[in-house]
Design goal:
The complex is a heterotrimer. Chain A is of the alpha/beta class. Chain A has helices spanning 3-13, 38-47, 52-65, 107-115, 146-152, 159-165, 167-173, 184-192, 433-441, 446-457, 459-462, 467-482, and strands spanning 29-31, 90-92, 130-136, 139-143, 155-158, 197-201, 210-216, 227-232, 237-245, 252-255, 258-263, 268-275, 287-298, 304-311, 316-319, 322-325, 331-340, 345-348, 351-354, 360-370, 374-383, 391-401, 406-415, 421-430. Chain A has one domain (3-482). Chain B is globular and about 70 Å long. The chains are: A alpha/beta, B alpha/beta, C alpha/beta.
Chain lengths: 486, 439, 251
């Protein structure tokens, strides 16, 4: 058997057993009744003790959502979702009122996060490297290092808390990047979002800690609708990490998040995601539907937003982290690795909208497709008439492993300024037999060789991840492809 | 058929007029079948992905009457608009063959011309199947409209093994204000034949007309066909063209389209590679000024293993013109060892010009080499300065550089005389549009 | 006991027989050169020994350290101590040379049930070896062979050999594409790795490499068979007379 064919078989061998985050936590939960209507929206708002304006916004979104149709332009297929068969609110009983001090968090929850490799006890962390907000189903259960961050003027808390404690900031920025009517899933999120993180970094501060949110879907038949809002005020900098897992279940679960980023003059946000939701089994049974709207607005001059994502999980991934480059000389970046195996489908990419002068964007996308999976890059680079001197460079590379999978590249390039320069390049290839043999001649097993070569293929993206994340992501790539590496 | 699709579909009157003219029962049947396909496909709307960047409202909102063809119009061939090439001519006026303007007697050996209007029983079945052949996810409504409104169709057969002494030049002349017509050409290159067919689409005086053309090409095993097209319609005309090409094992298809004219033009090429060792080449250039809208949409279907496709398109957009490039390469599961390359480069010459580019790869085979690229930019200031520093004035320098830029695409053409003739027309465009202060 | 024993080895590629009954025995520490004209099957022999896909052994046996070599996968053979210095080393984009070496080194340790190497000590060891081959840190950081000149690629092969310490090194046309300085450097690297326990099989078309690496035995391979064997004087004879003597014997 040829080494390639063997690799393909090993890839095929990957079963859901390899998903090591597939356990579920036994904990007493509080649910809202199943289904979606105005009462549920009101219920969620009441649970969160929200002010009237927030409820009104949610209801406006909900009413608009009822007039919308689910988008069908992405290259993904799935049965129609019954939005009445989902719980929109599920919270561990004790945590219902939002995050408490760490001492009060249910030990069952602490154990869960420990098992996931996310220590919530501050003393267990390397001194102050990462602050974590842990979101369990619909609520934030803990946020670490709050006191230390508060001292510096950084607000890092759950979005529910922010609505209550910092209404002016929330009012000003929530929905300002992704409006309530933006798209089907984002609008649904506006109506029923339950929790998520809020970050505000004050003027001139370089946040010395990585901030991180760890999302966990646990309860059955539950959708997770989190909302994240990050604001970097003038001259501020923050690096934010996001990780996600879910138990292994036979039915599909919906995750429809919205993330909004705002950078003012000279500010920078670096947003990194390692998405490892349960992908479903080898036949495509179960797994998360990951329909996410992520968008950043570079409002200020010389500001920068950088998205890095490693997408290995989910049955379906539908996300396009985007940058609206309004400020002159602002910079948008998108670095992506998307791996699909078995029956996974990913349709992901970015939008770079150049509005300001001398705005620059870089897109590096690496898609790896194995098994029967489909992997699509879909991106838009748009240069508006005033974006004098705008620059974009896009590189999309696809790697196919096996002959039953698909790799697709769908870039849209629209330029309305003659001084703008847009360059797009894309390639499709497979792992060559020569490379595999070379690695094996040096003693690497076939699956290790594939792991090494694929990690090399993804190098340009991986180097943008913060160190701790990069190691984790590298392992994930191995696991996603072989099940035996790492 | 759902009612919603029938509503608001334009040009029903053209279809009715064509139907009234069809004396033979079998031609009337063809009209009716095409009309049904047109209704099912529906008129392209803003959310039809393949028409995303080309809005047909202005076309749909215009009033046209079905053109009378032939000598009755008294039209002449505009010599300074067509491709200047020494080859026998087949001239269509408003989609109908005009024998007086043509040199049918001079057609080279190995080339046989058949007209739908004079088709015998045996040809009819072939015609009927060809006329209803096009298919795509969006139903190709304009091709169906072509079949529902055509007055004539020509079959150009190149015999097996034939190597005609000269190329054949098919010239479509639009004549008569506010007329609509539907040229239809079938080119069948027989096994191991080696021929060039050239199409010039031009206006013969009238300013506003609607040419809705379809050219269907089959290239049999081992054949080599050069198929070159100049779109140089009157500046107020609408030009919508579909070319389909089916290319068999070991064949070479060398296509090039230069788009210069029309108010709105769509050049759509859909190719299917059905065998191994095919060289499938579709290249082109588009040069627009004023408020022209030039759309190039191509689809390459690698349905068999071991073939190559190559596509290079280059555009120059001046004034408030708009260019569109949509190119898709599909590599099916069994099309292993496919080698596909696609490149679109566009240059904006003005701050009111716009380019929309969508190069697309859809790949289901793993042992392939496919790459595509797209660039958008303007003339390099360094290059301009270099030429100026050598004493060349700025306008001349611009023309030289743009000309060199476009030539890179034209140089893809296999036939040398066609290459030179294309460069001549591209040069005319540059002289007319890039003099004075240009931008 | 012999280290490697090849008996009546027949091998085909795409159903075409290339090796037509090779017999060869190598003891520990011995250096054998295989010389032959183009198309004689030299590279095929190296690939068959290393276990490359697409080469089918139709007859005969290969015993390495008392084991049936043909039963093993390519990586298992490598970990048992067979090293092939490639004629055309491939590029692996994105994978740093140092990372690649560490992966290979640890694979071998794991294979022998030993704990993985300490990262710092490994780094020091590789740097020291690289230095003797005139390779700087930058070359170790760069992706494997990407953007390397012909000479750099060959030096990189020798460095990998130095780190992985094989018991049988097969050098496939290692001199091809090298100028005289690079050839000297590479030869010195190879000579430094000579010891009692390490055998080498040097595959070459020309005698010039053998001026720098002195073989114990020379074999002439032509038409898929070893036609003659002798000492290093045989190489000189070939240099003088060429391979014309073997041209007639086509099967």
């Amino acid at each position: 058997m040829s080494a390639t064919a063997e690799t393909v078989d090993q890839v095929k061998d990957l079963t859901a057993d390899k998903y090591k985050y597939g356990f579920s936590t036994e904990i007493e939960m509080e649910f809202a009744p199943k289904g979606l209507n105005e009462d549920i929206v009101r219920f969620i708002s009441a649970k969160k003790e929200e002010p009237e304006w927030m409820l009104e916004w949610r209801l406006k979104a909900f009413r608009h959502w009822q007039t919308m149709e689910a988008p069908n332009w992405a290259k993904v297929g799935y049965p129609e979702i019954d939005y009445q068969d989902i719980y929109y609110y599920a919270a561990p009983k004790q945590a219902g009122d939002g995050p408490k001090s760490l001492d009060e968090v249910d030990p069952e929850l602490l154990k869960t996060y420990e098992k996931l490799g996310i220590p919530l006890k501050e003393q267990e962390l390397l001194a102050g490297v990462v602050a974590v907000d842990a979101v369990f189903d619909s609520v934030s259960v803990a946020t670490t290092y709050k006191a230390k961050l508060t001292e510096m003027g950084v607000i890092f808390c759950s979005i529910s808390e922010a609505v209550r404690e910092y209404p002016e900031l929330v009012k000003k920025y929530l929905g300002s990047v992704v409006p309530y009517s933006d798209n089907y899933f984002a609008t649904l999120n506006c109506a029923v979002f339950t929790d998520g993180s809020f970050v505000y970094v004050p003027k001139g501060l370089r946040c010395p800690m990585e901030l991180s949110t760890y999302f966990r879907i646990n309860a059955e038949n539950t959708g997770q609708f989190e909302r994240t809002l990050i604001i970097a005020d003038e001259g501020a900098y923050v690096s934010y990490l996001e990780g996600c897992t879910a138990p292994q279940r036979d039915e599909n679960q919906l995750h429809a998040a919205v993330v909004e980023l705002v950078t003012l003059d000279n500010a920078e946000i670096k947003y990194s995601t390692v998405q490892n939701w349960y992908p479903g089994d080898e036949n495509g049974k179960g797994g998360i539907y990951n329909f996410v709207t992520k968008r950043g607005a570079c409002r200020g001059a010389n500001s920068k937003i950088s998205w890095t994502q490693v997408e290995t999980g989910s049955a379906i991934t539908w996300k396009y982290p985007s940058c609206i480059l309004q400020g002159d000389n602002s910079v948008g970046e998108f670095y992506s690795v998307a791996i699909t195996n078995n029956a996974q489908q990913a349709d992901t990419g970015t939008k770079m909208i150049h509005l300001g002068k001398n705005t620059r964007s870089t897109i590096i996308s690496k898609g790896i497709s194995a098994g029967k999976a489909d992997n699509t890059y879909r991106g838009l680079v748009k240069v508006m008439p005033k974006a004098e001197g705008a620059r974009n460079f896009t590189q999309c590379d696809s790697l196919l492993i096996g002959d039953r999978c698909g790799a697709h590249t769908v870039p849209y390039i629209e330029s309305r300024n003659p001084s703008a320069r847009v360059e797009h390049e894309a390639t499709t290839s497979k792992i060559s037999d020569d490379q595999l043999f070379y690695c094996m001649q040096r003693g690497l097993s076939a699956e290790d060789a594939v792991g090494v070569i694929v990690n090399g293929f993804c190098k340009e993206v991986m180097k943008n991840l913060p160190m701790e994340f990069a190691v984790e992501a590298q392992k994930l790539i191995g696991i996603s492809l072989e099940g035996s590496v790492g | 058929m759902p009612d919603g699709l029938v509503k608001a579909i334009p040009f029903e009157d053209l279809i009715a007029a064509a139907r009234a003219r069809s004396q033979d029962g079998w031609r009337a049947d063809l009209n009716d079948q095409a009309k049904a396909r047109y209704h099912v496909a529906g008129w392209p709307h803003a959310r039809t992905e393949s028409w995303k960047y080309t809005n047909l409202n202005a076309l749909a909102g215009s009033d046209f009457t079905l053109a009378e063809g032939g000598a009755a119009t008294g039209a002449a061939v505009p010599e300074d608009a067509i491709l200047a090439i020494d080859a026998p001519r087949i001239v269509l006026v408003n989609g109908v063959l005009d024998p007086a303007l043509s040199n049918l007697d001079a057609l080279p050996g190995g080339v046989v011309l058949t007209r739908l209007a004079e088709a015998g029983e045996s040809d009819r079945a072939v015609m009927a199947s060809l006329l209803s052949e096009e298919s795509s996810t969006d139903g190709l409504p304009l091709a169906a409209l072509n079949a529902a409104t055509l007055s004539d169709a020509l079959i150009l057969d190149i015999a097996t093994g034939a190597v005609p002494e000269t190329a054949v030049h098919v010239i479509s002349v639009g004549a008569g204000e506010n007329k609509a017509f539907a040229p239809r050409l079938l080119i069948r290159a027989g096994e191991d034949s080696f021929a060039d067919v050239i199409e010039s689409h031009v206006g013969g005086g009238a300013e506003v007309y609607f040419s809705n053309s379809v050219t269907q090409v089959t290239v049999a095993k081992g054949a080599r066909l050069g198929h070159y097209r100049l779109q140089n319609e009157a500046l107020g005309a609408f030009h919508v063209a579909l070319t389909t090409a089916e290319v068999a094992e070991g064949a070479v298809y060398d296509n090039f389209v230069l788009s210069l004219g029309a108010r709105l033009a769509r050049n759509e090429i859909r190719g299917e590679i059905t065998g191994a060792r095919v060289e499938y080449r579709i290249n082109g250039a588009y040069m627009a000024s004023g408020t022209r809208h030039l759309d190039n949409t191509t689809f390459i279907d690698h349905a068999a293993a071991g073939s190559r496709s190559r596509e290079v398109y280059k555009g120059v957009l001046a004034d408030a013109s708009r260019g569109v490039f949509q190119g898709k390469i599909l590599v099916r599961q069994d099309a292993q060892q496919t080698d596909g390359y696609q490149m679109n480069r566009a240059m904006l010459m003005s701050d009111r010009a716009e380019i929309d580019s969508k190069p697309e790869l859809e790949i289901y085979a793993d042992d392939v080499r496919c790459s595509h690229g797209a660039t958008v930019g303007e003339l390099e200031e360094d290059h301009l300065f270099y030429l100026q520093a050598r004493g060349i004035d700025r306008d001349t320098a611009r023309r030289l550089l743009v000309s060199a830029y476009i030539d890179e695409a034209i140089d893809e053409i296999h036939s040398e005389p066609v290459r030179e003739a294309m460069k001549q027309r591209a040069g005319d465009w540059l002289a007319q549009n890039l003099s004075g202060d240009g931008a | 006991m012999s280290l490697l024993k090849i008996e009546n080895l027949h091998a085909t590629i795409d159903d075409k027989e290339i090796l037509k009954g090779i017999n060869l025995e190598m003891g520990p520490g011995e250096i054998h050169a295989i010389m032959g004209p183009n198309g004689s099957g030299k590279s095929t022999l190296s690939y068959v020994l290393a276990g490359r896909d697409g080469y089918e052994v139709t007859e005969g046996s290969v015993t390495f350290k008392g084991k049936d070599l043909l039963e093993l996968e390519a990586d298992e053979r490598a970990n048992e101590g067979i090293f092939l210095a490639f004629q055309y080393p491939v590029e692996i984009p994105g994978v740093a040379g140092m990372t690649f070496l560490r992966e290979s080194y640890n694979a071998k340790l794991r294979h022998h049930g030993e704990p993985e190497a300490d990262a710092m000590q490994f780094l020091k060891m590789v740097r020291a070896k690289a230095k003797t081959l005139n390779m700087n840190d930058d070359m170790l950081k760069r992706p494997v062979n990407v953007g390397f000149s012909g000479g750099e690629k060959k030096r990189n092969e020798i460095l990998q050999m130095a780190v992985l310490e094989p018991s049988l090194a097969i050098l496939d046309e290692t001199d091809s594409g090298l100028d005289i300085d690079a050839l000297k450097l590479v030869s010195e690297g190879v000579n430094a790795l000579r010891n009692e326990g390490r055998s080498m099989l040097i595959i070459t078309h020309y005698q010039r490499l053998l001026n720098h690496i002195q073989p114990d035995f020379v074999h002439v391979l032509a038409h898929g068979k070893i036609q003659r064997s002798g000492g290093k004087e045989l190489a000189l004879e070939l240099e003088a007379n060429g391979y014309a003597d073997f041209a007639e014997e086509a099967a």
